[in-house]
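In response to a reviewer's request, we include the raw inputs and outputs for one of the modeled complexes. The two entities were modeled together in a single run.
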Amino acid sequence: MAAREWRRVQEESENIWVKCSGCQEILFRKDAERRLFVCPKCNTHMRLTVDQRLLMIVDRGSFVERDAVLSSADALGFRDRKPYTARLAEARGKTGRAEAVVCGVATILDQPVALGIFDFAFLGGSMGSVVGEKLTRVVEHAIDAQLPVVFFAASGGARMQEGVLSLMQMAKVSMALGRLREVGLPYLCVMTDPTTGGVAASLGMLGDIHIAEPQALIGFAGPRVIEQTIREKLPPGFQRAEFLVEHGMVDLVVERKDLRRTLGQVLSLLRDSVQ
Amino acid sequence: MPTTYLEFEKSFVELDKRLETLRQITIHSEEEQTECDALEAQCRQQEADLYSALSPWQRVQLSRHTDRPYTLDYIEQLCSEFVELHGDRVFGDDPAIVGGLARFRGRPVVVVGHQRGRTTAEKVRRNFGMPRPEGYRKALRLFHMAERFRRPVLAFIDTQGAYPGIDAEERGQAEAIARNIREMSRLRTPIIVVVIGEGGSGGALALGVGDRVLMQENACYSVITPEGCAAILYGERTPERVAWAADALKVTATDLLALQVIDAIIPEPPGGAHRHPEETFPLVGEAIAQQLDALLQLSTDELLAQRYTKFRRMGEAVIVAPTEDPRAEIASA
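The model returned the following structure tokens for the whole complex.
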């Protein structure tokens, strides 16, 4: 409860203006909200908080969070410019969340689902052991409760500060998704900006259906790494959602305003009885 | 005799040269024999001293040493009747990953591994051991074949990482890696993974999910290269930062065993696999044979259940489930 109040305070104290992350246009916060944080000038789908995403996608009041309190310890004693523990505390303060993913159950247009929503504002949505654990637990719950799974990815990849343990989360989550697949439950992945690295190369690309938000950056290697490797400028639109559709890696690019409806439709088409 | 020496191995250059010269003489005089024996002993002592006390960064460098045995060397030494198979049946054949059918100590197996090159031409041809999607898809084809014909899989890990290039992205590098990880995790046949060199991130893990993950003493395994980590966190790749990253990331076999990411360390002869490959092969062969014998005792369902539990527990040490909401600290801040 306290955390929720704190978040409201935080939001109210925010500027009444929002700057588009694409064209730098200054927008009225109220207008931006009405437009689901999609820029009217350049159609940039700005990054969302988990709360904003929930508001847009799930049926009102249907979301029940799971494992909200799981949090990370510093297993490696990792310290660069700042200790990992300090980075975690900062991220918790900034987002009001204990970790970079929020999981739970909800309904989308009356279709019950198990959900996982990444919070990019929390250390770049990076997948450490707790993110892997929460996603795995929610998939296991989906198997028990016979629910389809929907993940919203927004992540730079694995969390460096947890070293190889974060790499292993790719295996852990993929393994659970493998079991989900064996029991015949659908998994939809919505890739939002950005979905790269170890998150793209595990849960990101394992959906029965891949949906992407317009212009979202999606890929394994980051554009800078590729540029440095091949010593060339990358072509325009490279690794953007539309590029991924063109290359057969994504099924649909869906505008944010249509996302809830599309998800509901796909879920009912996959789940409704044939009889 | 090694072809290259790392900075910290320079003390061996003269020693090795002298030994080599002496060894080339077919008939030794008594003095020569004595000198040869003495040098050999000195060399062994020096090896024991140096290689037992390496820093993590030195071990990373060793894991990339061009004199270390590569996947094809292990296949040649440990297996018989190797039939290399090619192609992913979709796009092409990636020489950065090799694989095929073989016999290991009498048992038919499927072998797969990353393959680096030794000569410049071969390095280029094998793309420095950095696979493209078709490499992973070839591996997947072989994994599925192993499952269908109930052959155990031996997978050798030795890559800096999956290739970060335009073509690789276009053909779905992320998808290829993700699919391999998922399929390996549920493959209905025993899988033994051996990290023989560098285990580079997702590009390594795409061949690295198994019932047993073994790692050689001087191999390393990491979520990112120390160079990459230093560049991201400090914006520079100076030797000090890179050495710091190698330490901070906990990439050595000892670290990984402590973190329970691997099941066992395969010892290397003093001086390392790159100086004594002939002594290395039997150590790896014995380690694989032991694990394979144990795995073949299990039913497929037991095997899969154990594999699930093994990876299910990864990262347990990091997870804190407090009785109180950690967000309380935020509220009170």
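As requested, we also summarize the result in words. Residues 47-274 of chain A form a domain with the 2-enoyl-CoA Hydratase; Chain A, domain 1 fold (CATH 3.90.226.10). Chain A touches chain B through 75 residues (CB under 8 Å).
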